[in-house]
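User: Hello, can you help with two protein structures?

Assistant: Certainly.
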Amino acid sequence: MTGIDRRSFLAALGATVASGFYPRRGHALAERPLFVSACFAGDGKSASVAVFSLDGEMLFSTRLPERGHDIAIRPASSDLVVFARRPGNWAAVVDRTSGTVRRVVTAPEGRHFYGHGVFSADGGLLYATENDIAKGDGLLGIYDARNGYARVGEMPSFGIGPHDLAYLPGHRTIVVANGGIRTNPETGREILNRDRMEPSLAIVDPVAGTVLLKVDLGPDLRGLSIRHLAVTPRGETVFGCQFEGDEAEMPPLVGVLMPDGRTRFLDMPEDALDAMKNYVGSVTLDASGRIAAAASPVGNTLAFWDLDAGRFIGRRRMSDVCGIAPAPVEGVFLATSGNAGVRLAPVSGNDLKPLGGTDLARWAWDNHLRAL
């Protein structure tokens, strides 16, 4: 992985910033359910970020110099911030209506992004998970979106290897998934502390820069890296994990941090847990906020839980599935794959209906999918 500055980023885009803009049909943009994800061509090249509609129309695909990871959506703005995959050092600010790259944000020297960020309620500040490369400490970099995304500060993530983060209801505190894994850009994704991992969940006050609560999973689950989050309207945080221990072990992979600080894991049958292959690549909630979904691209599996009943609902097979987002209808998700396109995934049925035609099917979709 090489560092990228704004000039080399724009040069990598080629002659045009947006490699393809597809005019929308019929309905106004704001009235259509839209989704955004990083993606790349089937040959593993031509990394892009794309916005498409629920009826399968690709609105645009904008070239990126390297693969993107997650996308932060700025409130009351057309800005989308696409983060590079870890350990990347760039984030692209893309106009959600045209696909134009408005700005390129780069991490300062000695820092790199972990692929995720979240905006304050008013859209003024962007918080991004970062690594202090020399010390190995987790950070939240703070960027002023009203001032050209200038970096205006940083605060601890109160853990190692922060990955995903999300605001809790009320938009005053942020929950951070500290994966517990120390890495260095010089060695890529190699785990430097496999025997000393420290995964945790931290609830922080971004204004004061303090930690209000920090929860770990105990010594028996030290190898369970907490990676991705989804927050319910009631303040429960669903978290998905990746196990870095003995492959023969099968620890639970999806849990819930309750508002009172207690954690519990979501039960699933042994055969379903085995199908996840110790890896959760993303988690989300349906439109009601009461059904949780987790995707395992390693296990080619989607799994669902009823949070109210604390009950496992079932699983569906989809090759290389990872990106998941709520469809507008309760109990239905949209799922993306690295080799099987985009599909509607209803909890109540066994069939996963392909979405769209060649525009969507020809892309390999990356880890995360967001509803706009």
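That covers the first. Now for the second protein you mentioned:
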Amino acid sequence: MNHSYNASSISDQEKAHKALLELEIKFNKKSRTGALGIQGSQIQALTGFNRIFEQYPYPVVINAAILKLADWFRTHNNVVKFYVYKVFKEASHQHLEKIINVEETIRRILPILGSNDTTARSITLRVLGCMSIIIAEKLDVQFGFELATDRLELQAAIWASDQICARSNRFPAVIFSKIDKKLRGHYYPSTSLDIKLQVVKIFRHMHEDIGMTREAQKTCLSLLNDSATGSELVIVTLRTLTLLISKAVIDQKEQIA
């Protein structure tokens, strides 16, 4: 019985590696450059990866596929990067958890955060957010995050920070002062309402450390006590404060009052 299962597994893995090779050949196929900086064959190849994940969900197969995607992400233009990001976005957590060489994957992707290209950095942040299930406690990832001034990159950083905060015990402390400043008017008086609405929600994750919880609570209360705070931000802040306090189990009377 086990012998039959192992033989079937090996056969499936061989088929999977053959399918991956076919996708790689299709991706590298020489043809005219597409109008958007990507060839149709490359799009077809990239959209085929999630089918392989579903059909052959073996760690060795998924690991090989992800490393190949990370290589293409590192070396190709932003259009290719975007389609690689879509593969990560559509991949299930169960599949991403099967990656064997997490460090190697990060080593290929993370350096792009040092690029001068804001679009490349934005896409990279979103890929890292998609990978939060396996990289949340990686310090090199955590300290690579900045809340930029470019709107596209800032939105990507906020989204990715929220994903990683949800799964990390340490990252909330790393990102806390950066998001706190975004909400305090004297630091960033020009922070728009929609950005504040996104940023304040991250405070719901600040419950692992009592001191940090109190600071997050203080910022939320200052927003609620500020007459300039609009009703939409008040509602989101109250909801965030409720989630924060319910997990931290402190100062519930003060919140209710």
